[in-house]
Amino acid sequence: MATINIDLTELPNLTNDKFYPLYTNKDRYLVLMGGGGSGKSVFTAQKIIVRMLTEQKHRFLVLRKVAKTLRESVFMEIKNVINRWGLQKLFKIPKGTSSELHITCVNGNEILFAGLDDVEKLKSISGITSVWMEEASECTPEDFRQLDIRLRGRTLNYKQFMITFNPIDINHWLKKEFFDHRKQNAATLHSTYQDNKFLDKEAIAVLEAFKETDPYFYQVYALGEWGVLGKTIFNAQKVSERISYLRNHDPVVQRGYFVYQKDSADKIIDSTIRWIDADDGYIKMFRNPDTRTPYVVGGDTAGDGSDNFIGQVIDNVTGEQVAVYKNQFDEDLYAEQMYCLGRHYNNALLSIETNFSSHPVKVLTRLGYTNQYIREREDTFTGSITKAYGFRTDKLTRPSAIAELVKIVRESVHLINDMDTLNEMLTFVRNEKGRPQAKEGAHDDLIMALAIAYYSRGQQDDRAFAAAVAEKSTPFPFRTEEPSGGEYVAW
């Protein structure tokens, strides 16, 4: 059999820079999410052709939800790559609109096409070595699982399940499967039209025009961010633009957690508190503490369907979100980490919600942390007013706290640095009674903790605030600062 030499030296010039490293990616799942015109489908077709040329004994299965959409989409995409690269002599491509969709290479490799609605054809296909699911947002999790099971057995080369889609709905199963938590042996990539150096100006203009004409299309097909179906409490366009910005400007300066030692009274010894860097740490810092700046920490405890303990740290002078804590913990361990976080940020004001449990507040009090939010409550028996540590979310404080956060997002979304918090904002809506809350299946822990932090700002030490914002007057040139005389400086 004759040997054919394939020259791949021009491959970098034929591929968008963002996608080029993925030619060598061998993860079982390669998930490409992005907007229209980002080049994700073109790249996937290119990778298949490269593997067809450089590897042996392949049977690629290329899928869409509906079989009749295959010819003018994925089949055409692969055919175009073959033609652009001048490889027509190496591939057998069926002609005519009635021909079966099946491409073969001279080395025996095959590409099969099928719709997920064509059950009988899928049953007859065996020996699959890799899969491409295009427009995966059209497919169900059951579709994915059935195909995932079928991609098994020993093969000469690595098996890969490639998934491409536009993020049409933030509640989609694809987000939960691959993006909310890191899936083992999976690689994800986000792309937009700005990553496609081959896109023409007319196509770019169409995408950018959506900003004025259709915010949803702009969010999904221009920014490549998760779409929001329905009316959200927060400005979805501003939130999506901030998320898009943070994807390319990672604000995290440190990630990790605190370790410490305790004395015989089970109290934390402040001098032993140390920060540990860890890639999987549950505390993210966006700004390290400034020695003269006062900070506020809002806390939301696990309860009422929530499974995470949260801490949100804000700079009380600028209002910027400077750190976030998120973890599943026992209440006492959560309180101890919050103690350390508060100490780290200049003995910050800790304002922790007590609706579901007052135990973290009690632990902080036992540890000697006195700079906590103080609320007033009425004794139902005597009618007297008493003061207690901890924030209470009720019919008065909740609407006010949320309204303030909505205003901050509308006017100063650049103050929010955490993408998880911003993503929660896209699923925070009004229910049928008009009450703002997370959509079914979504969470609002990060939102509520941040809202509590902003609401509690007024209780931070006024002296610390004044010292941080005070402007020192500039003395008259060359005069001393002595209160008497004000003589010129002696030379």
Explain what you see.
This protein has 491 residues and is α/β, with parallel strands linked by helices. The model has no long low-confidence stretch (mean pLDDT 90). The relative contact order is 0.10. It is elongated, with a radius of gyration of 29 Å. The longest helix is centred in the last third of the chain and has 16 residues, at 397-412. The chain has helices spanning 40-54, 71-84, 119-124, 141-150, 173-179, 201-213, 215-222, 236-248, 331-344, 359-367, 397-412, 419-425, 445-455, 462-469; strands at residues 29-34, 59-64, 91-92, 102-105, 110-115, 130-133, 160-165, 186-191, 254-259, 274-277, 283-285, 295-300, 309-315, 321-327, 349-352, 374-378, 385-389, 428-430, 436-438. Helix 1 packs across helix 2 (71-84). The strands form four sheets. An eight-stranded mixed β-sheet has the order 3-4-5-2-6-7-1-8. It contains 14 helices and 19 strands.
